[in-house]
Design a protein that fits this description.
five-stranded antiparallel sheet; globular; HIT family, subunit A; single chain; binds zinc ion
Length: 137
Amino acid sequence: MADCVFCSPIDHALYDDGRVAVVSHEDRAVRGHAMVVARRHVENASDLPTQEWLHFARVQHAAEHALLEATGAERAVLLKLGIQTPHLHVHIYPVRASLTRAEVQEIIDGRVREDVEYGFDEGVRVRIAGLMDQRQI
Ligand SMILES: [Zn+2]
């Protein structure tokens, strides 16, 4: 779909194998806010054939692992909406386990911003690639 941001070429992906990509979210509401994106235009996970969904889940698993490791956060908050962009993507917010629900909601709403150090994305990119190279994660 021509007007869909995720059907357009994705630059600076943290991971992209042509079926699933991982991209940093530009709002930087929290260090490591990223999205796992299906490269096929579907709205819901259940629109994907099972094998494609399992691959999506494997990439999401690797991305979460890499983001938690890179940030030192203990908790991954996940969000799938599709209201603004009805193309399957899952947000991952690495957060401290000590955050309250209200503090997490501020992050989800993009009302806060966290600085991201130079080289952070490259570190995540290397970690995801390493995990996807392994047979078992
Ligand atoms: Zn799309």
